[in-house]
Design a protein that fits this description.
The complex is a heterodimer. By secondary structure, chain A is an alpha+beta fold. Chain A has eleven helices and eight strands. Chain A is globular and about 60 Å long. Chain B has two domains: 36 residues, no CATH class; 76 residues, 434 Repressor (Amino-terminal Domain) (Orthogonal Bundle), CATH 1.10.260. Chain B has a two-stranded antiparallel sheet with strand order 1-2. In chain B, a hairpin with a 5-residue loop joins strand 1 and strand 2. The N and C termini of chain B lie far apart (46 Å). In chain B, 33% of the residues are buried. Classes of the chains: A alpha+beta, B mainly alpha. The interface between A and B is large, with 54 and 40 residues.
Chain lengths: 331, 134
């Protein structure tokens, strides 16, 4: 059984699943639109949580939040199910496929056999669509892949029941009701306001304050932890910023694309200017990554290098602070 | 980033036929998507992270052979896990898993517990008990 489903590659998996499921149900919404309305853009620093023996840095909202916010703001209802029993999880999936309903799944990356070994980490917040089954193979539309792929029943069960942080527990989701017409305008404004609030939040672990905190800590790393660990931490920042799914520049380019599209929908030419500025901020993040890579490439640990990229990050924080203060007033 | 400046560097993604999708601006200032084969700064970061894991695996192996830890720790590192992840797969408290790293405790583990670990690492109990052939 195979549902007639159009696979379209996207930069990020969650936006991509939402955008593809929306298209399947007759609504054309671009990936940047989903990301912007869902207030996906963020910066967060969690030094007390370690992943791969380095602190957590993230450039986006928590998994699942983007779709939830998007759905609420445009008036869609989403059904979400989690399972403790893999048999039941499989049965519910098969039931949906039999009803011609493609579903989104949250999965772990470590056992996704079609990824190269180097990319298979214990990361549990990947998303894909299942759109059919042929013999023992489930037909998979993974948004970060150019084409469709497939997984056997056993392989799919493994990724659906991966363990560790954010364990998916068979998490399956799909939209169940839609408004007659998608009303994007109000949703866009809500999405933008929310992102401005997050980025300017008076908490040290999110937004521009978190960037400043990282910038401050970067200077201390080589002395406090030694060159090796400091380089490892720096590498983690760059990986989180530029990994598959970010669209480059820690999601800043996707956000700039969203602002450009929003400027047309809202007929607000100021947003086009904001889009250009966000593109330049994205470029500044890329320069930051390039400079950082020059340090960890050598795997030595000169402290001057650390001071200079710390300053670079302070600078980006300053620009983003001014950006979101002005953006808040423009919508 | 301009569309024509999207980096096309060598990376591990190529052999799996995956390309990274990035957003960039075309000649008319419009946002478009473009595929990228990779970008050196992030390839180096990933390579370093892999090297780091390989060093951890080697170190664990050495300590197993010196009877300072049990093969469970070695297989944990080999599967890019850490203690919280392994404990989550095993369905045990972290301190219990950590205790199983002690060679003296490992030797006395029940077949049932050994089988649990063997299943997690997808190997036989024999393979779990000795790592020399790896």
């Amino acid at each position: 059984m195979q549902i007639d489903f159009t696979h379209k590659q996207s930069a990020h998996c969650e936006n991509g699943v939402v955008s593809n499921l929306m298209r399947h149900n007759g609504f054309e919404v671009s990936e940047p639109m989903v990301f912007g309305i869902g207030s996906g853009l963020l910066f967060s620093y969690l030094p007390f949580i370690k992943v791969n023996y380095a602190p957590v840095f993230t450039y986006r909202a928590m998994p699942g939040l983007i779709f939830n916010r998007f759905a609420k703001r445009v008036g869609i209802k989403v059904k979400r199910e989690k399972f403790s029993n893999p048999e039941k999880a499989k049965a519910r999936l098969d039931e949906n496929l039999a009803n011609n309903n493609p579903v989104g799944l949250q999965v772990g990356v470590y056992n996704l056999i079609y990824f190269p070994d180097e990319y298979r980490f214990h990361f549990n917040a990947h998303n894909m669509v299942v759109y059919g089954k042929k013999d023992d193979d489930y037909l998979i539309s993974d948004p970060v892949m150019e084409g469709v792929t497939s997984l056997t029943t056993k392989q799919l069960e493994k990724v659906r029941f991966a363990k560790g942080a954010f364990a998916p527990k068979g998490h399956m989701y799909y939209p169940i009701s839609f408004p007659e017409k998608l009303e994007l305008k109000a949703a866009i404004i809500k999405g933008i306001k929310h992102t401005c609030r997050d980025m300017l939040a008076p908490a040290p672990i999110v937004g521009v304050r978190a960037m400043r905190w990282v910038a401050k800590n970067i200077k201390k790393w080589p002395v406090k932890y030694g060159a090796k660990k400091a380089n490892h931490y720096l590498g983690q920042i760059v990986r989180m910023q530029e990994e598959i799914g970010t669209g480059g520049g820690g999601f800043r380019y996707i956000y700039a694309a969203f602002l450009q599209e929003a400027s047309q929908v809202l007929n607000n030419s100021k947003l086009e200017e904001f889009s250009k500025e966000m593109t330049q901020i994205g470029d500044a993040w890329r320069d930051f990554a390039l400079e950082a890579s020059r340090i960890y490439k050598k795997r030595s640990g000169q402290t001057e290098g650390y001071d200079s990229i710390s300053d670079q990050l302070f600078n980006i924080a300053k620009r983003e602070e001014a950006f979101f203060k002005a953006l808040r007033k423009a919508v | 980033m301009k569309k024509k400046e999207v980096p096309q560097d060598e990376s591990q993604l190529e052999k799996a036929n995956i390309k990274d999708m990035v957003y960039a601006v075309d000649e008319n200032g419009e946002y478009v998507t473009e595929l990228s084969t990779g970008w050196e700064p992030k390839t180096i970061a990933l390579d370093n992270a892999i090297k780091e894991i390989e060093e951890r695996v080697e170190d664990a192996k050495k300590r197993v052979l010196e009877h300072k830890t049990s093969p469970i720790e070695y297989y944990m590192e080999l599967h890019k896990m850490d203690l919280p992840i392994l404990a989550s797969y095993a369905g045990m408290w972290q301190w219990r898993v950590k205790r199983h790293f002690k060679p003296s405790v490992f030797e006395k583990l029940s077949l049932k517990t050994l089988q649990k670990y063997a299943d997690i690492f997808e190997i036989s109990i024999e393979e779990l008990k000795q790592i020399k052939n790896q």
